[in-house]
């Protein structure tokens, strides 16, 4: 007899909870703690949950086949294909071209800049996964702000929010929508069609846009002043020093690398000026001479040691970007963002030998609200961290082509396959229209689109694997079995009964609103995909207990899970703009909370109108 047969029943608030349910609830609680605290990346947490579900199969009722089902799920495969298709569109430069048109239209008018940012990001995110859209547009919008003498802080958060509005125009706008469709199909036998919620999505886009152009614009701070100098923004005056090498200095005759080994503290030589000539990377083997002027990044204690013991005299500190930018563009300053899927996540600047590998100096970086200047080489990098990099133009171009970075500045000579734009649009149109017409399932049309992009040269075969954000794929594969366990053990039914009990005092519309708010709060602190997996089974059970339209509850949870405005960690796109916008954690709540509340009412009323309860 199986261990499951010995499950013991015990009452909680009048409902019977089995040992199986208790085990699954324990795993859900563990998942929430790990997703919120992030001791390990979220995709690793998801795989851990998948393993635990299989190891505890006598109680979770998840067999190895079910535990691994997330890898073969149509949702996972569709998301993988859509990420590749989005990369193909990016390679053509179509979105960047639209961005430049946007800049030309907006000029230096702040209202036009904001309207154009939303107007490009919103519609584009309905047909291209919204995360790549934001990654593509961050440098375009940052350049627009600086060229138009506006604060990037006024545009970058709206860029992220608009991408979420647009993501609700079609089922392929976000990975969350695709996953929700798959879960709905499994539990209700009804998936979400391509344009199922387009009408409501358009309403959300218009309402959200109106909010950002009016109330939201007033609430948005100017954390970064127009044309703000990066040296000032990163508060580097205390850490950057220009020092003249005296004749009696022990550094004379040694190389830059040897000079670094002579001192006990931390010192980086960023550039060397000699008789009007400036030398930058590679500097390690450059010999130091008397009267050389070294630009150093160091802390106060090490600086004192250099002054009193090492034959240097302080010439001052760089006070503007121009002093660290070599003429003819050979050395420039630029911000670089660490996106989801970057191989640098969890690594340190020292462990990846950043300076040597990328021929670039990191002067400082912003991690969430904290500015990191001293001892930053040993600090583990996280998604959304923004590095202030000094590098030659060719190194910055190389960084911009790497999927490990988002460079917050468009390359001067981008290498796009503009001649492939018509072909890419035709392929994307086929991917969208074939499922909409009922000719092919979304997963088949998406995979067919990937093949078509390779055959037509929009994408090269070697670019396929680099186009996929594997963190998202492993996250999906890991959390899908958790939703199955909630169903198999009856845990979802129990939670649904508990929620349905509130119907004694609340109408069905209010219960739907409560589900929207609960999902929105949850997705602001954990992965939006995890929110869908946890909340849809419970919402369906609650709807069935109330004898109302369960599909309407699925739509409500899906909209709530795809719109996380109140924290920077609730959605990847919020993290992408966190550093370049100079935001604080509380900025998201101040701007996002009223928007979240407004859209909760609009969405719930819209669901009642379009789908009925």
UniProtKB/TrEMBL annotation:
One of its GO terms (cellular component) is membrane. It is found in: Membrane. This is SLC13 family permease. Keywords: Membrane, Repeat, Transmembrane, Transmembrane helix, Transport. Its main location: membrane. It comes from the Archaea. Residues 228-312, 321-405 form the RCK C-terminal domain. The keyword Signal does not apply. It is a multi-pass membrane protein. The chain crosses the membrane at residues 12-37, 44-62, 74-95, 155-180, 200-220, 423-456, 468-486, 498-519, 550-571, 591-611.
